[in-house]
Amino acid sequence: MLVNFFYTLKRAEIPVSIKEYLVLLEALKAHLAFADMDDFYHLARTCLVKDEANFDKFDRVFGAYFKQLESLEDVLNALIPEEWLRSEFMKQLSDEEKAKIKSLGGLEELLDAFKERLAEQEKRHQGGSKWIGTGGTSPFGHSGYHPEGIRVGGESRNKSAAKVWEKRQFKDLDDSAQLGTRNIKVALRKLRQFARTGAAEELDLDHTISATAKNAGMLDLKLVPERHNAVKVLLMLDVGGSMDPYIQVCEDLFAACRSEFKHLEHFYFHNFVYESLWRNNLRRQSERTSLYDIIHTYGRDYKVIFVGDASMSPYEISSSYGSVEHMNPEPGHAWMQRLTAHFDKVAWLNPVPEEHWGYTHSIGLTQQLIDHKMYPMSLAGLSDVIKALAK
Amino acid sequence: MSFTGTDNYVATKDLQMAVNAAVTLQRPLLIKGEPGTGKTLLAEEVASALGMPLMQWHVKSTTKAQQGLYEYDAVSRLRDSQLGNDKVHDVGNYIKKGKLWQAFDADERVVLLIDEIDKADIEFPNDLLVELDKMEFHVYETGERVQAKHRPVVIITSNNEKELPDAFLRRCFFHYINFPDKTTMKAIVGVHYPDISQALVAEAMQMFFDVRDIPGLKKKPSTSELIDWLKLLMADEIPEDLLANRDQTKAIPPLYGALLKNEQDVQLLERLAFMSRREQR
Ligand SMILES: Nc1ncnc2c1ncn2[C@@H]1O[C@H](COP(=O)(O)OP(=O)(O)O)[C@@H](O)[C@H]1O
Ligand SMILES: [Mg+2]
């Protein structure tokens, strides 16, 4: 049964590993949970789930899995995994894990110990809270993972207080707008890898000193590849209007891994770049940075990432005085060309769905100016941007 | 012996289970939660409840994993060698034990707190994987193998500033301190001020949770702020006032400086109070 529970968690996309499952078995063997089902719930959670964003999912799976109060016999039957499942399970184990199981007395022994636990519990709570697994059938039916499809709260037959896991107290943590959503997490991981690409040699001072000391004071230089934080990024964000929610996501994303980058700077623009940009949106009129200054301040190795819809009147790119906002003596494309001439890598993330790009003239113009390094603002797009910038 | 909280510390059932699992199975316990929810205090209280000494390793952004094991002071050695000091022949004279080593070396089981692990470089947890798993490490300079005499109870805290690597997470028990609900919060207040007036607690908690609910706060007040605030309220003998003028004060709690530390948050609160007063007129 526990094996099935484990696989059900996996299917619900909670990242559990066999290692953690074994720890749970070990903990049961150590009598950490025997008093009641709440204990077992808490124990299973502390062993198996390592991210509070997954607590709610865990609660739902748990509720669905240990749903009904039936007879002990059912529990015992359900406990024993199908033969094939057991061998499947063993097949997945590494040698180390097999050794671990062996050291705990073997899988059979572990399961027996668990059965005993259950029997004890049964004695303690005659007629009290008994529980059972659904014994191998997925609580989610055939159609995969459908959170809405599971009714948990209020289903218990005895009308006592809701079980801990039925309270769904971690609901808000799941998909919490910021970084809880799975997308953003994956995106972060990608960005983090990006931040760590690019290795230059740097002087390993500690090692040099110790090597020199060992060398009786003769200087012995040691170099190591600079291990991380090698990437420098200039983020250019289109603000004002329909872009704002997308910009927010992007800013949050980069802010969340700010410390990963050696340098991460951001500037705002509206629709397109002209002679100056700004850093603080509240003071966009009073505090502006000239584009020339940006070019002179940041080396060509800065990777420039634009985030914007690139959707505007073509004049805003191609004509002098074409900007909607101010009088620009020189057309936007001239400024963009200065930028691309200076920086080695420039890419653009666009929240407009890629299928629609062909219908907007200004997107095509922008594409030409940035060597077609425009990508949709999705996980795949982010991957592509990273690839384009890392090359 | 199992941990059930202390006279100074309220531990919810799930936290008790996490601590007991970590103590029994001798694996690290990772504690996450908002600042001020009692993560650091937990380690102290676990140590005192279990009668074990506490060793604390406070992590900073510059902390390296190696510093927890030991540091080799090559510069002193170099200097000593140039001065012809005899100490120089024993490299052991230049090895300084880190917290992990001290914890492994202790003659009894200790509680080792690794506080705010998320402050360090993202490689930091990975660099400690084996050491925490096997509770042993190698000293290259002396060829010595350091092994824990008693596996310490390792409590690691994180404010969630950085994600921790999966391999590291897999080796820990995990507990997230959910922000206390009202019942738990009352109990926490109770351990701090056993004699406090219940009417004051009820009123103050209502305001406290109202403030926490204000959308857009940069830093929501946490348990520790509530505790400090109550102390001020009692010292100022605000209670009578507070209770009598409930409606008026509702929008803006007295001595709110103790609840909100951030200038912007204070301004936000004042603005809201101003608006609600205007509406009432
Ligand atoms: N469960 C609790 N029981 C008793 N006091 C608590 C509890 N949680 C928080 N506190 C109070 O909050 C203060 C801050 O806790 P601390 O451990 O420093 O928080 P963190 O390390 O999570 O930032 C403690 O000193 C204590 O006064
Ligand atoms: Mg702390």
Structure explained in plain terms:
The complex is a heterodimer of chains A (391) and B (281). By secondary structure, chain A is an alpha/beta fold. In chain A, the strands form three sheets. Chain A has a five-stranded parallel β-sheet, covered by helices on one side. In chain A, strands 1-2 form a two-stranded antiparallel sheet. The two termini of chain A are 49 Å apart. About 17% of the residues of chain A have low confidence. Chain B has 281 residues and is α/β, with parallel strands linked by helices. The radius of gyration of chain B is 24 Å and the shape is elongated. The model of chain B has no long low-confidence stretch (mean pLDDT 88). The chains are: A alpha/beta (391), B alpha/beta (281). At the A-B interface, α2, α3, α9 and α10 of A face α1, α4, α8 and β9 of B. The site of magnesium ion has 4 residues of chain B, from α2. The site of adenosine-5'-diphosphate has 16 residues of chain B, from α2, α9 and α11.
- Biggest sheet character of chain B: 5 strands, parallel
The outline of chain A comes out as extended
Instruction: Please state the oligomeric state of the protein chains shown.
Output: heterodimer
**Bound ions, cofactors and other small molecules, one mention each:** adenosine-5'-diphosphate, magnesium ion
Shape of chain B: elongated
Largest interface: A-B, 42 and 35 residues
| Helical percentage of chain B | 40-55%
Mean pLDDT figure of chain A? 70
In angstroms, what separates the terminal alpha carbons of chain A?
A: 49 Å
Could you state the order of secondary-structure elements of chain A as H and E? Answer: HHHHHHHHHEHEEHEEEHEHHEHEH
Q: What's the Cα radius of gyration of chain B? A: 24 Å
Quickly give the structural class of chain A.
alpha/beta
Q: Indicate the percent of residues in helices of chain A.
A: 40-55%
Beta-strand percentage range of chain B: 5-15%
Please tally the helical runs of chain B, counting DSSP H or I stretches of 4 or more residues: 14
Query: Number of helical segments of chain A?
Result: 16
- Through-space gap between termini of chain B: 61 Å
